[in-house]
Amino acid sequence: MDPMDQPVPPSRRGAFDTREAVVAALRRIHPFDQVPAELVARVAEQVRWRPCHAGDVLFREGEPVKAVFLLRQGRVKIVAVDDEGREYIMHLLGPGDLFPAVGLFTGGGYPATAEVIQDGVVGTVTREAILDLVRRHGDLAMALLMAQEERIRYLQDRIRSLVWRDLRTRVLEVLVKHMGDQLTHQEIAALVGAARESVSRVISEFKRQGLVTRDPSGRWRVRSRGGEGR
């Protein structure tokens, strides 16, 4: 029997019946879409899948980095909290994301807290297992380093936006980037680094101007240049 078609042990199965199904799911998670299928199959042997629910905390800031997480379904926010208890959203993650972006190679503590905001399915791979594969497979090492670089570039863009762009522009950027998501005003405020009241005023102005709309399910739409919402 092809090892890709062998049954998956119950502890690692999640919603999958065969290793081939696990590999197919991993290929939809970046950066495993960039490495050969046979290497993805080796990673698949190490993944433990489980359901996650809104409100679950996957890890907390400062805790030792013991595993990386693979989001198959659902949404997760990566947040940091300042000394006054204000929450700042560093990332909003969806299906296909791997996290955290730092700590895998250097160890130490998680740089922020990961909280589930929409029910889904998450996989975990221990740091030791990933590092063992990285030592033996250069393709995986390169893919993970490239993914980390992409995340760093994203954070650099976020910093530039906070420093150089006004609140209206920052809010519009978030609405465009997360178009179709069910973001609350508080989540938008945490993404742009502003008070919720200020963000609510900006969004109200956008609505009056017809720039943005929100459907009954709470998903945001932004009017395109052609005048139609997307």
Automatic annotation (TrEMBL):
SUPFAM superfamilies: cAMP-binding domain-like, Winged helix' DNA-binding domain. Gene3D superfamilies: Jelly Rolls. PROSITE patterns: CNMP_BINDING_3, HTH_CRP_1, HTH_CRP_2. Residues 165-226 form the HTH crp-type domain. One of its GO terms (molecular function) is DNA-binding transcription factor activity. GO terms for cellular component: cytosol. Pfam families: cNMP_binding (PF00027), HTH_Crp_2 (PF13545). Keywords: DNA-binding, Transcription, Transcription regulation. InterPro entries: cNMP-bd_dom (IPR000595), cNMP-bd_dom_sf (IPR018490), Env_Response_Regulators (IPR050397), HTH_CRP (IPR012318), RmlC-like_jellyroll (IPR014710), Tscrpt_reg_HTH_Crp-type_CS (IPR018335), WH_DNA-bd_sf (IPR036390). This is cAMP-binding protein. It comes from Thermaerobacter subterraneus DSM 13965.
